[in-house]
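Quick one:
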Amino acid sequence: MPHRVPPLFIFIFLVVVCVTLVVWHNMARERGAISPPESVAFLTLRPAQRVLVGVRDWCVDVGQTMIGRGGSIRENQRLKRQLAALEGQNRRLVRYPRENQELRALLKMPRQRGGKTVAAQVLALDATDYNRTITLNVGSRQGVRAKDVVYNAQGVVGQVIACDRFTCRVLLLTDGQARVGAMVSRTLAKGVVQGTGENEKDSECKMVYLNYGADVREGDLVVTSGEGSLFPRGLVIGRVLKVEKDKTYSRMSADIDPAVSFDRIAAVYVRVQVGTVGSGQ
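Output:
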């Protein structure tokens, strides 16, 4: 059986050790130094202290970075919103002078005989590989209906294909389904202008069904012929870019450069028909 150390001896030993350490510490302080036990404890705990201080500094840096990143994200979002607002304001400022110019031009235009005219603004442009239309801010409430003619100070824009009470949709002259009776103003050579519906072509419109040998030249002005009950005579369509002759089939056609800048129109007239609307062009 092992010999058990008396508790009193242990107590006395601990008291002696403590007194020795205190005296050692006081003597070292009087000399302006640290005691050997303190040096041993410092050297022993120093690596652990360094690790803990490094962990603390890393946590502080991460916290500051996250806080700073959150602030940067909020600032970036604020700047993006401000930029979008400024871009929208800039687009409006650019559009207003053009709309004002087009409205002034419309006011100077002579009114077309027959029916009545309704001024309208363009709300949207839809130009895709499948169709080319615009939406106007007038509809059946203003008397607009399908097949009504749409034009501006430059010339023919298109024809209404659908409408509701407050808006209508217009098929542009450049759409592949558009057809307008036309003639060359210089020689009165007649044909039909139709849209090509393709941006990659040299021209967005083509005049077809021309009599073979008709006097049509590059630069000739093409206007509506007035044949049919819809498009009035004399509205500008565009100018001839190139004349093509097919001797084999005795056919003749011409590429037409439209007078209207369809991607920039802002205001138009709708020629509202009064009475029964025919089906011709």
